[in-house]
Amino acid sequence: MGARPTSVLIADDQPKVLRAFAAVLSAQPDLRVAATAPDGAEAVRQARLTRPDVALLDIRMPEMNGIEAARRILQTERTRIIMITTFDLDDYVYDALTAGASGFLLKDVRAPDLVAAVRTVARGDALLAPAVTRRLIAEFARQRRRPAVPDGHGLTPRETEVLCLMARGRSNAEIAAELVVSEHTVKTHVARLLAKLGLRDRTQAVIHAYEIGLVVPDSR
User: Fewest CB atoms within 10 A around its CB: which of 34, 59, 74, 157?
Assistant: First the structure.
């Protein structure tokens, strides 16, 4: 018996987008569309009924926008959120990420990239769309930077190293190679630092690293 398919909720007020995304994801044997919704309020209701693994939420929807829907879903569910937007530097994207979203996609995303994004976020082990997401996080974190707390974040020196490398877009394999440790060890460090910081996933960790000044925007 195979693994349980990843269940997905899709919410968008454009029927064409909703149908297209549902068709692409339903065609994958490891993915299952649990529900669809035309607005944020219905998305929240469907999330509580179906408890999906991943929710794709349009940022701008009637009744309730995607950001508020994400907040409400994450209050009670362990669903991972992907926001859908028309523009890659949408002013609302950073608010969505800080509300708990794991990343974002453009509405014109290619089918293979949509499928890969859902799988990536479901695993919770990589930053979604690293180049664009990281650029956006850096820009808004630059505006909203909190005072740096290099000794007050509660992480060990090695966990801090891992967090810095995550914030620079490194995968677990790349971090393992750079630190000369096993990938399993990196995964352990990632899990521990997320738990210590009370963060949901890698995207939230990247935001945190920028906001406290642990990583300087545009640094390498």
Answer: 157
